[in-house]
Amino acid sequence: MVNDYVKEVIARRIAGDIVVSDNCGAALKRWRETFKATQVEVAKAMGITPSVIVDYEKSRRLPGVRFLRRFVDALFQIDSERGWITSRQLAKMFNLDLGAIIDARDLSTPLTLDELVTAVEGIIVNSRISGTEFYGYTVIDSIGAIVSLSGDQFWQLMGLTTNRALIFTKVTTGRSPMIAVRVAPVKPAVVVLHGPKKVDPMAIRLADREGIPLVLSLKGDVPELVSALRGVRASAL
């Protein structure tokens, strides 16, 4: 299985490559062949006729946003039926094989701190920072991050924008995540801790020093947390 974060990044790479290509039709064909899918298979997954795929690949039609989304979804559908072989290879190629990242989302419209707190059933445990808005979030397995991430991989937690919330799961007290944020050259807009019954006073002091709202999430488990975040009203890009 390939998680939503990896699929989203790969989808953006595919769509972006096609859009900026000098020959969109050739790019569509190249990605179809990368996934080892036939025109018939892609057409069936998209609910269209193979002749339409031929038209796009021969540049008789230019793909729009809606077509590209359906095209990428079709590639993922075909790949999922084959055990995600191509997507896993692309994840390694793009250096996305990070077990520490559970989910990530970049948003077209900003979320407010209040909306985030409501979604994660959170409590702000440090000095409240008014007017906080952000354009994405990353959900992190804090244990996985300690085991698998090197210092120069921290930027990958930030997605496409640094103006985002970092949500650390499997947290004991919150001190380690806030120390990591403290020493990192790039700072998030908000930090959420999921797991601790009580937040370490040092974590609170570090959050205040950095001017970052620190939120304790009371959501029952990680899948429930991720589901709640995915249900927030702001739509993904």
Description:
The protein contains 11 helices and 6 strands. The protein has 2 domains: 4-93, 434 Repressor (Amino-terminal Domain), CATH 1.10.260; 101-230, HprK N-terminal domain-like (Udp-n-acetylmuramoylalanyl-d-glutamate--2,6- Diaminopimelate Ligase, Chain: A, domain 1, 3-Layer(aba) Sandwich), CATH 3.40.1390. It has 237 residues and is an alpha/beta fold. It has helices spanning 4-20, 24-34, 39-46, 50-57, 65-81, 85-93, 113-119, 142-148, 175-183, 201-210, 222-230, and strands spanning 101-112, 122-124, 133-141, 165-169, 190-194, 214-217. It is elongated. The chain has a 6-stranded mixed β-sheet with strand order 1-3-4-5-6-2. Helix 10 links the parallel strand 5 (190-194) and strand 6.
Total helical segments: 11
Looking at CATH, the homologous superfamily of the largest domain is HprK N-terminal domain-like
Q: State the distance separating the first and last CA atoms.
A: 23 Å
Beta-strand residue percentage: 15-25%
Number of domains: 2
Shape summary: elongated
Rounded to an integer in angstroms, the radius of gyration calculated over CA atoms is 20 Å
| CATH fold-level topology of the largest domain | Udp-n-acetylmuramoylalanyl-d-glutamate--2,6- Diaminopimelate Ligase, Chain: A, domain 1
Spatial arrangement of strands, main beta sheet: 1-3-4-5-6-2
